[in-house]
Amino acid sequence: MTAPDRSPAPASIPAAGGRRAALAPAHLRFFHGPMDCGKSTLALQVDHNQSRQGRSGLRLTQGDRSAGPQISSRVGLSRTAVEVDTGTDLLLLVRSHWAEGRRVDYLVVDEAQFLTPAQVDQLAELVDASHVDVYAFGLTTDFRTRLFPGTQRLLEVADDVQRIQVEVLCWCGAPGLLNARVVDGAMVRSGATVVVADTAPTPAPGEGEGPDTGADVHYQVLCRHHHVLGQLGPTAAGPGQLALS
Ligand SMILES: Nc1ncnc2c1ncn2[C@@H]1O[C@H](COP(=O)(O)OP(=O)(O)O)[C@@H](O)[C@H]1O
Ligand SMILES: Cc1cn([C@H]2C[C@H](O)[C@@H](COP(=O)(O)O)O2)c(=O)[nH]c1=O
Fold first, then answer.
1. pLDDT digit string, tens, across residues 41-83
2. What is the pTM of this model?
3. Main-chain phi, psi angles of 155, to 5 degrees
4. Cα of 69 to ligand 1 centre, how many Å?
5. Would you say the CB of residue 41 lies under 6 angstroms from ligand 1?
6. Is 181 helix (H, G, I), strand (E, B) or coil?
7. Residue 116: φ, ψ to 5°
8. Per the record, which residues fall in region Disordered (predicted)?
9. What is the CATH number of domain 168-229?
10. ipTM of this predicted complex?
11. What is the 41 CA–ligand 2 centroid distance (Å)?
12. What kind of fold does domain 10-163 have according to CATH?
């Protein structure tokens, strides 16, 4: 007995509106780097370039720091996006669009570090079984310098992996590759993996507060040397803060 065919409807194949050849292979592409290196900017540029060629796509995000369902870039651009969470079945999400007669030729996935490994595998299945191009953008490492699980899976299975080339500078002038979490002015090395916050050090009153503690939480990109030393450089709080925990 043969297994039931679970492949998606033919509508999943890029339709005539897309100028890309219908059967050209799709790809899972992953762009990564530290905070503030331009991931969301590039995500919006890719979306723009795809859509102006007549392709139809979905923008996905998870916990954008704007707190809205959108992809927002510090350059000033922002576009609405579908908010997903770790429980979202990305296959079902795309298939529900097909079921409504809407084409999905590509996905732009921001904050991809927050995906579960299973969701990354769903993206790979959309590429391989349904010819959906996937462009994922995410952090390389967390504040402890460890790969996020979603990032790890993307590095394992993506067709193409690119470290974003825009250099974010540490306060010392060296390229900054690592993200420090700063709580009430001091760098920390323990805590929840996911705490949505910005790189802006001085939030307006009532904004930028950690969800549980009420503390001021932000991130700062550092070079490896200063991440190891836990030195945040000269700040309003004083010279070189040392890690507390
Ligand atoms: N006023 C500005 N003028 C030019 N570039 C800016 C400005 N503000 C931010 N940027 C650029 O935007 C980048 C951050 O882009 P963004 O897409 O928000 O980063 P990410 O998503 O990686 O956190 C900065 O590294 C800088 O290059
Ligand atoms: C390092 C680190 C970051 N985050 C959060 C902080 C921000 O909300 C996003 C990254 O946003 P960006 O578009 O790259 O600026 O991730 C986190 O939850 N945990 C971390 O360790």
1. 999 999 999 999 999 999 999 998 888 899 999 999 999 999 9
2. 0.88
3. -65, -30
4. 19
5. yes
6. strand
7. -80, 160
8. 51-72
9. 3.30.60
10. 0.98
11. 15
12. Rossmann fold (3.40.50)
